[in-house]
Amino acid sequence: MKYHIEEMIAKSEIANKVRLLADNINKDLNNEDVLLIGLLRGSVMFLADIAREINNVSEIDFMSVSSYGSGMVTSGEIKILKDLDVNIEGKNVIIIEDIIDTGFTLSKVTKILKERNPKSLRICTLLDKPERRVTDVFVDYVGFIIPDEFVVGYGIDYAQKHRALSYIGKVVKDGEDNE
Length: 179
Ligand code: PRP
Ligand code: MN
Ligand code: MG
Hints:
Elements: E1 3-9, H1 11-29, E2 34-40, H2 44-51, E3 57-67, E4 78-82, E5 92-100, H3 104-114, E6 120-128, E7 141-145, E8 151-152, E9 168-173
């Protein structure tokens, strides 16, 4: 497919939003320690930036999950490719995600992590595409609600590309047909 990328959310808008989200998180945490969990790989840019704005980040860890099966339809099941290294029991935990689409990833990860008895478990996502939601997920902190467009950049990929863009762009297909 031939395509180009159009800027949708500028670098400065992302930076402002990161500070705003962190301010809200800091108010809610009230100076308690917090463990941040990033879901590889899309969340890395957002996690790196917001971690530096959140007070009392005691630990940072990562998890990697993938949808079961292949093809275009998500099965709703996930498998853990890399689990956390740290124990979350009794800790304040915030999952940092780049985007919520169908909601499968976060609903499953939340379920898995709740069973480990954290003191609190919250979700912070930079982007939310509510039109695509298949399964309910309660999200505590949302940066931007976006329409059902294919987006890339600031960690988010299209076929593993464009993760290092400093802005969020929209993938625009060139021409009418011919994939
Ligand atoms: C993307 C994105 C979210 C997830 C959202 O990750 O980063 O983690 O999909 O989709 P969902 O709400 O429908 O579950 P992906 O599986 O593409 O892996 P990546 O982060 O390595 O790109
Ligand atoms: Mn991801
Ligand atoms: Mg991806």
